[in-house]
Write a structure and sequence with these properties.
The complex is a heterodimer of chains A (205) and B (560). Chain A has 205 residues and is mostly helical. Chain A contains 8 helices and 1 strand, in the order H-H-H-H-H-H-H-H-E. With 560 residues, chain B is of the alpha/beta class. Chain B is 22% helix and 19% strand. The longest helix of chain B is centred in the last third of the chain and has 20 residues. Classes of the chains: A mainly alpha (205), B alpha/beta (560). At the A-B interface, helix 1, helix 4, helix 6, helix 7 and helix 8 of A face helix 2, helix 6, strand 12, strand 14 and helix 9 of B.
Chain lengths: 205, 560
């Protein structure tokens, strides 16, 4: 089996974040409904949320990598319907939460207000996911006992977790992220297993 | 010679078929190689071989549409945006799962030699003697000394990188310079070696990559994009290696889109006359004739072909007189092991992406060892790496610092997955399901395979032993895992036409000849009498080269 896939498998097993992994075995969907939900306004909003998570510095940020456009494609074509619904509803929930906290929509909020909101959502989403996982556990254990853990379908995660995961995935696998935020050498030509490294050196993508 | 008559026919063009074609043509036989799928030309047809991740719309992932269209492939890693075009469409080639069986196939010139994991290990006499020692199934009709020269023969041509270790359970190959372990793997290897007093070792994973130029092949460039096809020809495949050699002889005819539906058996001479072919594009049927037939269609399809042949003589098919045809299915069970965090080494990283990891040769149930509550053993494949951008960062959730941190390599982790031997159980079977047909109206296979107590007991050690080794080496937060294994997932299908000493209990003899029809040779995974715990492809190569040269010698003597 492919080495990278093997490592991914190890990562999955140890609970490291593997983007999209939890959706691999989920059910069916048709994409049309969700695609219509991604208006240019939604995409701009997702770009700005992405930019708050991974802002432009001396290297490009999430907006330049067009993570909003990427989320539209990925949610529409790769997420099962039930997860798509959580994502789409999440966008309105995020705006509601923003209004409650700052009295205005995300796009009208300052950089600091945006950051404060996402920090809140980070906390909320982690607690939510932990509770969902706990709730799912008996069903999972039951299937695992029968050697059928492959039939387990996890409850969807918090919508903010999805936005954040897709921001990271969309950014670090984009040309900007992979070649400018990180380093990319398309043909390394040799292997050095003890390369000297100092803090600040970028990872190879 | 008529244009439908050859001296040899090879069914299949994967690792085994490619070797059969090379050896037979180089020994001067006019050879027809039949491949059921389409052609893939070396380098020029590797459409994705230079494609960076950002050029994939879903960044290499899988869409819901893919999941719907590939109900089997979706069960594991093969369903992804990068290499989907090389895996068989489930809908065109269905099969029956009496019990869940994951069958991942590649129907095209080169077969799975294009997509394989490239891990290459010799068997030892501990493996060839295992059935006899344990008194299960039947004894192998050959020993290490019979195949050793052929391992060397294929290794010199295929190009195997690795390091000389002088281990009795894992004989050294003829090696090109080995790829190095990285700094963390070396450290862990040294600690493990000391802790276990040399009884457990961590070595570089031996693979069919060239690390020095050999004719027509450029050394590995450390992109780790093998699964897309290598434009440098750095890993062994039919395309990079055996096919050009066979073509160069002028003796090879390759016919893609050729599903071999039957071996034509002549009951008067008790030999095969040739094969019947269904053109998968035109649905026309053809007959081709030859003196010998090499069946290298991949384990289960080779047996499917035998089951569909000479049924007027043997209702269960050619080679079925022993009652063993379709029985004794094996694979390697895996998807469990352990992993953990490595402290330190923050001042070290790596350059290049190595297409292999480390390997831990089998250390359980070796001669003279304490016996475990299971027979046979397992090896590990693993790696140490610095974590990437998808890692969990506790300290911060958003912002410039998060971006900078994730753009840098994270802390080191190390982990390994065990690959264990599955015993040959008579009632682990494939059979013809005549109630279901594929796209070409051909009957399909039904799989009825499970793992048993022996494998389940082994899985406990497969997890705990790696945990113990990593902890002994100072690795922190070590966790074991078992992601569950279903038969077939190893993509190491073996058995169903086993070799043996007795025509009453085996399908093939010591030279891979079908006992019931001695000019038909089966040299792919179908021939395996037991499974060992090491990756099987190198053994198929050696077995095929050995049988092909035997066949030519016998033809010259007038014995076939």
């Amino acid at each position: 089996m492919d080495r990278r896939e093997l490592l991914k498998m190890i990562a999955l097993a140890t609970g490291s974040a593997v983007i999209g992994g939890e959706f691999f075995l989920s059910g069916c969907t048709s994409g049309a409904k969700t695609e219509a939900g991604f208006t240019p306004t939604t995409i701009s909003l997702l770009d700005e949320i992405g930019e708050t998570i991974l802002p432009a510095t001396s290297t490009p940020g999430a907006k330049e990598a067009q993570v909003g456009q990427f989320m539209k494609l990925y949610v529409t074509e790769c997420y099962p319907q039930v997860v798509q619904d959580v994502f789409m509803n999440g966008i309105s929930q995020l705006q509601e939460t923003c209004k409650k906290k700052h009295g205005k929509l995300f796009m009208d909020s300052s950089v600091e207000e945006r950051a404060a909101l996402l920090n809140d959502l980070e906390k909320e989403s982690k607690e939510y996911n932990a509770a969902q996982a706990k709730k799912d556990m008996p069903a999972y254990e039951e299937l695992k006992k029968k050697n059928r853990s492959d039939q387990f379908i996890a409850s969807p995660q918090h919508y903010y977790t999805m936005i954040k995961q897709l921001t990271l995935l969309g950014f670090f696998t984009s040309k900007q992220g992979a070649t400018l935020a990180m380093r990319h050498v398309s043909v390394p030509g040799r292997y050095d297993g003890a390369l000297p490294y100092k803090k600040g050196d970028k990872a190879y993508s | 010679m008529a244009d439908n008559t050859f001296e040899a026919i090879v069914v299949g063009s994967g690792i085994s078929g490619g070797w059969a074609a090379k050896e037979l043509t180089e020994r001067g036989l006019k050879t027809l190689m039949l491949e059921r799928g389409h052609d893939i030309k070396h380098v020029t047809d590797y459409e994705q071989s230079n494609k960076p991740v950002w050029q994939y719309p879903h960044r290499g992932g899988r869409t819901q549409k893919m999941i719907e269209e590939y109900p089997v492939l979706k069960r594991d890693y093969p369903l992804n945006e990068r290499s989907l075009h090389w895996w068989v469409k489930d809908s065109e080639c269905p099969y029956t799962e009496t019990k869940r069986f994951d069958w991942f196939r590649g129907y095209h010139v080169g077969g799975r030699s294009l997509m394989w994991g490239r891990q290459t290990y010799r068997w030892s006499d501990i493996d060839f003697g295992a059935n006899a020692k344990d008194g299960i199934a039947v004894d192998w009709p050959i020993r290490y000394k019979d195949i050793e020269p052929w391992y060397t023969h294929v290794e010199k041509f295929a190009g195997i990188q690795g390091t000389y270790e002088n281990l009795p359970q894992l004989p050294d190959s003829h090696f090109l310079p080995g790829m190095p372990l990285n700094v963390v793997e070396k450290d862990v290897a040294a600690r493990v070696k000391q802790h276990y007093n040399n009884k457990r070792t961590i070595i570089i994973g031996r693979t069919a990559h060239v690390t020095e130029p050999i004719p027509g092949r450029t050394p590995c460039q450390y992109r780790n994009m093998c699964a897309n096809g290598c434009p440098f020809g750095a890993y062994f495949s039919t395309q990079s290696s055996t096919l050009p050699a066979a073509v160069a002889t002028g003796n090879l005819t390759l016919r893609p889109f050729s599903i071999v539906t039957e071996i034509i058996y002549d009951k008067d001479t008790k030999k095969a006359k040739g094969v019947r072919v269904l053109d998968s594009e035109t649905n026309q049927t053809y007959e081709f004739f030859s003196k010998v037939v090499f069946v290298c269609a991949s384990s289960f399809n080779s047996t499917w072909l035998l089951m569909n042949s000479a049924t007027n003589i043997w209702p269960e098919g050619l080679g079925s007189s022993s009652g063993e045809l379709g029985h004794n299915v094996m694979d390697h069970h895996f998807r469990c092991g352990a992993s953990g965090d490595v402290d330190g080494f923050e001042d070290k990283y790596y350059y290049g992406f190595r297409p292999t990891g480390f390997y831990v040769p089998r250390f359980r149930n070796l001669p003279g060892d304490e016996k475990r509550n299971y027979l046979r053993g397992f090896g590990y494949q693993g790696a140490a790496n610095r974590q990437g951008w998808s890692r969990e960062v506790r300290e911060m959730s958003i912002g410039a610092d998060l971006k900078d941190m994730l753009a840098e390599p994270g802390p080191w982790r190390i982990g390994a997955t065990a690959f264990g031997e599955i015993l040959p159980y008579h009632d682990n079977t494939i059979s013809l399901d005549k109630t279901k047909q594929d796209k070409w109206k051909l009957p399909v296979l039904a799989m009825n395979v499970t793992i048993r107590e022996n494998e389940k007991n082994m899985r406990v050690d497969m997890q705990n032993d790696m945990k113990e080794m990593l902890e002994a080496a100072g690795v922190k937060n070590v966790n074991t895992y078992d992601n569950e294994y279903f038969p077939g997932m190893g993509i190491h299908e073996m058995g169903t036409a086993r070799m043996g000493n007795d025509p009453k209990t085996s399908v093939l003899n010591a030279n891979n000849q079908v006992w019931d029809c001695q000019n038909v040779f089966v040299t792919d995974g179908a021939c395996m009498t037991s499974a060992s715990c090491v990756n099987p492809s190198l053994t198929y190569m050696a077995m095929t080269a050995r049988a092909a040269n035997f066949a030519v010698d016998e033809l010259k003597k007038g014995n076939l």
